[in-house]
Amino acid sequence: MSDTNNAKPGSSEAAQRIxxxxxxxxxxxxxxxxxxxxxxxxxxxxxxxxxxxxxRRQRNIETVAAAAFEAAGFRPEGEAANTIxxxxxxxxxxxxxxxxxxxxxxxxxxxxxxxxxxxxxFSVQALDGLATMGAEGPEGISTDDIFSGKKVVIFGLPxxxxxxxxxxxxxxxxxxxxxxxxxxxxxxxxxxxxDAFVMxxxxxxxxxGDNVMMLADGNADFAEATDLVLDLTARGMGIRSQRFSMxxxxxxxxxxxxxxxxxxxxxxxxxxxxx
Length: 275
Fold this sequence. Notes:
3 domains; about 45% helix
């Protein structure tokens, strides 16, 4: 148990833990009930929280930078080098500032190192938009790349590695991929509001192989553009995609099924019967 002891005497251990955690976030003088206190004290706690947040982000950014610097190798002192594109760096910083996991910091450090060695190796789309996981990292992909001149079955789900998605939804499309392709479908794609690393790892875990294209909709751009957003912020999961299946022929949407709470309407079996 923390030594800050911000909770009132007699509080439960869970209440003590919450109070101590909030005390570290908002300032050591915080006590439960202070939300009704004076505005000056609240302003002080606000400043404390914002500084702490930005300091954590700064540490995350510098840790990723250190990993990238080590991966790229040291440049002899005095040797000039071109800088990385400013827009690319701005999007990169947006992504890494909240990543505190050491393994993911190392991965993003490798991305920065490769972009420094090979400018253009990772497009802004690969960082910020639709992406797949290639052999050497995320690869940006446009909707034209996916849909133009092709018959595509695309299905969306709330999240990688979640129970229904892992046990039923994605496995069904892997199992029936050959039958769906035999109906004239060129591509079967699974899309979720996750990053390319997560989607790539999930695809490997599910042994999708070449049967299903695993698409990362990192910022929910596709979900928002198709009006298929699912707001799970109240459950701590942020903005996600609804569970849906869609048939697209040369960029034209032919049918859309949306499920609420189940997956039967958007299952591979249902899509197969609709083709």
